Predict the 3D structure of the following.
Amino acid sequence: MLRVLRKFWRDQRGIAMIFVAIMFPVLIGFALLAIDMSRANGLHNDLQKGVDALALATAAELDGRTDSIDRANHAAATLVSNQTKFSTLGDHAIALTDVTITYLTGIPASDSIALTAQGVDANGVTWASSDGKAVSFSLVTVNASGLAAGAGAFETIFPASFIGSKDTIDIQPQAVAGFVQSICETVPIFMCNPFETSDPLTSKTIQQAFASGQTYSREFQILKSDGNAWNPGNFGLLDNSMDSLRDAIAMGTAGTCYNRNAITTKTGVTLGQVNAGLNTRFAIYSNSLNKYDKDWRYRPSVNVRKGSKSTGPACNKYAPVTDNSALPLPSGANYGTPNPGMSDPIGTQGFWTAYWQANHKQPYSNPVPSKTNPTGDKTKPASRYDIYRYEIDKGLVGDQSLNPTKEVGTPLCYKGTSPALTDSPDRRLLNMAIVDCIANTGKIKGHSQIRPDGYASVFVNTPIAKSDNSKDDEDASAAEKPISLEIVDVDGGFANNTLVDKAFRNEAQLYR
């Protein structure tokens, strides 16, 4: 018997089956873990794509208006209504209850600083806000228990409960997207906010002033600052990608796009270049630009009436006539008193009597409608831009003014033939940044980045003249007169929306 037992003990036949029997559960366990990890990775990728899309959709609505969060939430609800199903317990489609959407005013500078679903970073800083005008980022986090077992709750095949763990894994991808708005169709010039004061109680943004009708029909005259003091009535330059400032202003482009919330100032300016560039819009080509009088990029407006001879010497410099046989759009009253940098609004219909009689040779008996008044009050006298547009829309551009000038609004000094001139886009409109110069006096000097108060679409009332009209536009020896403008529209929720719709580019981009 002992010999039989010894022989059995020494017998190695079938030992492989014993090891296989022992290792089989281990091998099965590793296989299940590999399958679970693959499934979990697939679910994570699917959920990450979902929260990325949700973050981008909501961030795209954060344009700084009061209702931006409401619109973002609506966009989120619309997106998740596309019933995409995920591999969770049961047959369930992701819903808004499965995620937490938090709107932020900013994000930590480093991606290594984590954010909770409530918008609090690892350093305890709270970035979350419910102010639609302040937020610009959307944070989307998958909830740990949004569904029956969590939106990212993944049920494993591996029976982890046998080893004291749980049979689900929480997968919580997160995404952060931000709203970016830029303007590309603008000249590299900024204008000091004429409604800014040193007293916060009386200071207004350009959007507030526009919405209340305070900009309507006022003439704004702006001059380059001496570089030491920046006040309403001044303008300066912005950094740009153009070789020539003159050409940038003539063509209406900075050669780059500006972020709505950050622009960079540029030092040094030759006023002659600014004037020469702007005056091409009136078919006035200075000596250095007369070779471009056939170039479409330097084309004038379809209406260049300016109270000057239409041809001859008037083709290379602006010399207003003095006998009232032709009149430019008239200046406003009480310029600079009490409002620096601007005139009073046009007060009566009689403001246009002399202009109409001289240029159209008939009484101003049927007042032009005030179409662009942002308050909606059409009983006010027409603005300069309203008159200019009326002349175009009613076919009055070719009307000849009184003798001996006989000016017409047709741009006779432009020699280009193809394509035909068009008022879309309107060449006497410019998009321009508005800056709170009093608040940013220290930053404007030099190559500095500042936040603009907003952007305005401005109408150039008249060409820019020199104190000595015998000098060429780019001759720095003659003193410059101010640039005369009217504000036609602004950005923001209280505007006429012509500037935002046509000029701004709204984009959302992922940051995390």
Notes: Residues 87-91, 146-151 have pLDDT under 50 and may be disordered. The chain is about 25% helix and 15% strand. Residues 352 and 364 are 7 Å apart (CA to CA).
